[in-house]
């Protein structure tokens, strides 16, 4: 594995103490991009609450967050279990408020459209679109109380399509539409919502030797020839939540080395 693909990247430009007395709710906090977001927000002084299904992953995030300026607490939950996740958002909102909601939990399998069953389609739409709506709606009263913001972790190229991702791109394009619509509806409450579209991010699944051919192909399809680091996604989330992001809402920000302008990060070959 080329070290340049997954070496930690120092993207930090924001000032210490930026988020003291602020609070965040982060889904998918036990791995990859979500964990990096948690660690950066905690470093900047935030009280971060994280969820995800696997408690041992959340425990590891907590271990790594120890000794930093802010705090990290967690409880496992499946974002697709509507009543449970709504109750959890309420619990966190009542206990510590929500200045920032990060909808990061997500994922999909790669398959051509002809091999996606209705149940497979529904699962991906449920996780990557419907659950995002449920969590965001549940957080609304708390975001309103704090004039907070929402960062939806999406994909680069949501408005162009990519082979092998019909279900996931459909879901994320739906999130983009939802983001823009709620940005309009909730502007009067001072709530801002944005989508971040990372290109290829070398998290655990892609960092294994077996995934190397796919990773090489993805990096080749990235005009700048560099995958996105979790640290730079985290810094962008923090920037958007900061006073510098005050007027940024309803946006899709693609952090992808121009992947969305390239030949497409196709996850499968044409059939
Ligand atoms: C420029 C552009 C750049 C754009 C691109 C930019 C780069 C993109 C890179 C993205 C990277 C990442 O997201 S990294 C994160 C990757 N990690 C993950 O995605 C893991 C999480 N994934 C999941 O959990 C699953 O995919 C998901 C389906 C959502 C889980 O839902 P469920 O638990 O309900 O799933 P299951 O019960 O197992 O299965 C439900 C149905 O889905 C079907 N199914 C499951 N896997 C399947 C498969 N491989 N092929 C076909 N069908 C499958 C099953 O057969 C079931 O249907 P029936 O058989 O009919 O019953
Ligand atoms: N890696 C990449 O190249 C890219 C990733 N993305 C997107 O970024 C986000 C983070 O991905 P990444 O960090 O790379 O990958 P990971 O697979 O490491 O992260 C996904 C996280 O979501 C959590 N999660 C998944 N399903 C559920 C669920 N039903 N309920 C609660 N939590 C859930 C997982 O935890 P657990 O399994 O414990 O529940 C995991 O922590 C995803 O939305 C992904 O699609 C976007 C562009 C590129």
From TrEMBL:
Class in the EC hierarchy, top level: oxidoreductase
InterPro entries (alphabetical): NAD(P)-bd_dom_sf, Peroxisomal_t2-enoyl-CoA_red, SDR_fam
Pfam families (alphabetical): adh_short_C2
EC number(s) stated in the UniProt entry for this protein: 1.3.1.38
Reaction(s) the record says it catalyses: (2E)-tetradecenoyl-CoA + NADPH + H(+) = tetradecanoyl-CoA + NADP(+); a (2E)-enoyl-CoA + NADPH + H(+) = a 2,3-saturated acyl-CoA + NADP(+); (2E)-dodecenoyl-CoA + NADPH + H(+) = dodecanoyl-CoA + NADP(+); (2E)-hexenoyl-CoA + NADPH + H(+) = hexanoyl-CoA + NADP(+)
Localization in the cell: Peroxisome
Record pathway: Lipid metabolism
Entry keyword set: Fatty acid biosynthesis, Fatty acid metabolism, Lipid biosynthesis, Lipid metabolism, NADP, Oxidoreductase, Peroxisome, Phosphoprotein
Function of the protein: Participates in chain elongation of fatty acids. Catalyzes the reduction of trans-2-enoyl-CoAs of varying chain lengths from 6:1 to 16:1, having maximum activity with 10:1 CoA. Has no 2,4-dienoyl-CoA reductase activity.
Matches recorded under PANTHER family: PEROXISOMAL TRANS-2-ENOYL-COA REDUCTASE
Complex and partners: Interacts with PEX5, probably required to target it into peroxisomes.
Name of the protein: Peroxisomal trans-2-enoyl-CoA reductase
Species: Microvirga splendida
